[in-house]
Amino acid sequence: MAYYPDWVGGEFPPEKIDFSHYDWLDFAFALPNSRFELVWDDDEAPSLLSRLVAAAHATTTKVKLSIGGWTGSKYFSPAVATDDSRRIFANNILAVYNAYNLDGIDLDWEYPGHEGDDGNLYDPADTSNFLAFLKVLRTTLPPSAKISAAVQTLPFLGADGDPINDASEFGEVFDWILLMNYDTWESSSPPGPNAPLYDACNNSTQPASSASAGVVAWAKAGFPVSKLVLGLPSYGYVSRSSSERLRTRSPWDHSKSHHWWHEHEDDEKHHVHEDDEGEGDADWHWWSGHGGWGGDNHNGDEDDDEDDDDYGREGGYRPPKSPPANPDSTRPLTVVDSDGQVQFRDLVRQGVLIPSIGADGGVQYTPGGGFERYWDSCSETPFLRSTTPGQIVTYDDTESLALKARFAKEVGMMGVNIFDVHGDTEEHHLINAIRGAMGL
C-alpha cells in the first residue's frame, strides 16, 4: 500500500506508477468543508484522481480516497457531531465514492479529541461521535467498500483526555487502520528519529511514538492486530546539528497521553495473546528491542551512557558503516520543504546516498557528499551526519524499512503503507526492500 498525494501529480503522474508493487493506493486528500462537503486543495485533483483510478483499475490495484490530513481536518468534529451532520457527511462521501469509481474511503482525521493543526475544531465527544458516524458510513457505502483510517500510535482520546481503553467497536467498523509511525521529532535540535521502530533504550519521553508501542497500545485496547497497518515514511528531516547521537527525550511534550503510556509501558515488554481476529489464544511476540530480532539495545558500546544533555541521555548508536564517499565536500544538503522535510529520492539525487549491490544481492546505500552514516540502535533507524555544514538527516532507508516490514509480518499486522509513493527512487529500491522483507 502507498499514499499518492495530489501535489506529486506534476512530476510523478499516475501513468508512471508501477502498480504491480501495490495492492492499494490512497489518493490524498479531499477536505471536508463547513457544509460537510468534500472539496479539493488543488484544482487538478479531480482529474488526477480519475486518471489514478483508471490506471490502477487497468491492473489489480484498488484505490481509496483519503479525506482530511494535517491541514484538512478542521471540520471533522462538527461533521460527525449530530445525527443530521453524520447523514449529510456520509451521503456526500458516497457521492464522491460513486463519481470516481472508488474502492474505499480512508479517514485521516488529525485528531479526534484534540486540535492537531492550528484552528482545527474539536470536542471531548469526538471519539464517540466518530464511532457513531462510522456506523452510518458503513451502512451508507456499498458492502464492498473498504473503510480505513490513519491514526496515531495511541488510541483515540476519550472525553477525559486519555486514550480510550476499549477500541473494539472501532475494529468492527474499520477494515483496517494505519499507524502513522513518522514525524516523531521532525526537524529539531538536537535531532531525534523520524520513525522509531522501538524505544529499545527505555529512555524516551515519547515512548508511545514507536511502531512496537503503537501495536501494543491498540492491541491492549482490543483492536485486532490483524487489522493494523504500519505506516512507513519515504522521507526524512534535515536538522542543523553536529551531534553523533539522536536524542530520545522531549523537553516540551508532557501531554496526558504520555503520562498514560508510562503507566502501561511494561505491557510492551511482554507477550501479547492474539489470534487473527483479535480474540483467540495464538501467541505472537513483541520484538521491542529486548532480545528480539531487532538486535540488542546498545551494541556493547561502553560510552552509551555518555553525552547527557538537557534533553536527557541521547540514543545509542553504531559508528559509521563506511567513510563518506566524498569526504572533502562541504556542500550542504538542499531541502525543498520549509519544514526541513526531504524525500529519500532527493537524498539520492543530491549524492548524499549512493546505491550499490550488497553481498546478499540487495541494494544498500553508502553515504556521499561529505556525510557519514550512523545507526541509532534505540530506534533502529539510520541518520546521516555532515560536520562541515553542521547537518543531521534523520530518515529511513532500505535496511530500516526492511526491519519495520519484517516486524509488521512477525507480529501479524495486515501489512504496511508507505507515505508516499513518490519518495522512493526510480528503481523502487525502498518498496522492493519492503516487499522482500515481507516475502512478497
UniProtKB/TrEMBL annotation:
Residues 1-440 form the GH18 domain. It catalyses: Random endo-hydrolysis of N-acetyl-beta-D-glucosaminide (1->4)-beta-linkages in chitin and chitodextrins. Residues 295-335 are annotated as: Disordered. It holds the Pfam family Glyco_hydro_18. InterPro entries: Chitinase_II/V-like_cat (IPR011583), Chitinase_insertion_sf (IPR029070), GH (IPR017853), Glyco_hydro18_cat (IPR001223), Glyco_hydro_18_chit_AS (IPR001579), Glycosyl_Hydrlase_18 (IPR050314). Keywords: Carbohydrate metabolism, Chitin degradation, Glycosidase, Hydrolase, Polysaccharide degradation. One of its GO terms (cellular component) is extracellular region. It comes from the Eukaryota. GO terms for biological process: chitin catabolic process; polysaccharide catabolic process. Gene3D superfamilies: 3.10.50.10, Glycosidases. Residues 301-311 have a biased composition (Acidic residues). GO terms for molecular function: chitin binding; endochitinase activity. Belongs to the glycosyl hydrolase 18 family. This is Glycoside hydrolase family 18 protein.
